[in-house]
Please model this.
Amino acid sequence: MSLGSVLTAIVTPFDADLAVDERAFVNLMHHLAAHGSDGFVVCATTGEASTLDDDEHLRVIELACQERPPGVTIIAGTGSNNTLHACALTERATELGVDAVLSVTPYYNKPSRRGLMAHYRQIAAATDKPVILYNIPSRVVIDIPNDVLAELAQIERIDYVKQANNDNLALIDGLGIYAGNDDIFARTLDLGGCGGILVASHLVGNQMRRMVDEPQRRAEIDASLRELYRALMVTTNPTPVKAALNLLGHKVGGLRLPLVEADESETATVRTALENLGLLERR
Model:
């Protein structure tokens, strides 16, 4: 099946008490579906899965599946550095009706090549849905080289990789490639990849959709979004995108510790990028 090309790694909105704001989540999901998103990755890095407990985590996945806009796909972040925990989350997400799961490289443990293979074999056995590997060495200590990705692709149901190491970006035999960083979305499409698991699509989803549909204008559109990509990296994700969404009137709330809200300088950087794109009136 096709999971889509513009997959938004959707934020998890919180209310004033930092509880999950379910109404805000559903409203945002429908807004994004109307503005370019083919599907949503829920409860991953941008969704602050690391500070959700399991009940909250599974409730957000359930809510996404129950309230999904017509035609969109739902991919659940179910990774963990504990293989048994990752398998349990994967099993429950599958039961809740997701279209695929995203499974991050085990962090902190620093598993060997054989350990990685064993870890992902068990996860793939816990679902009948596609598994997307998530290679993000900046957060998880280790990088999965392309030759190991090709070996992992031989495991049934491991069908894709979200590649968040820009230096490793290349086609892998047996795996569909998703850009894991906004700034390599255009490159990934040019290579013949599937698309991107994106953050900027919260704000410029229609433009990113055009990068898929209008390949002759892809480089031009990509160049016009570079300032926004940089602004969304001014501090740790998802702090900048939550600041941007709040500035644009989407009430997504704050962040749970140890993440903190954008400071004055960071907010100014985000605001300027939004203003320069005409998304926000200049003050």
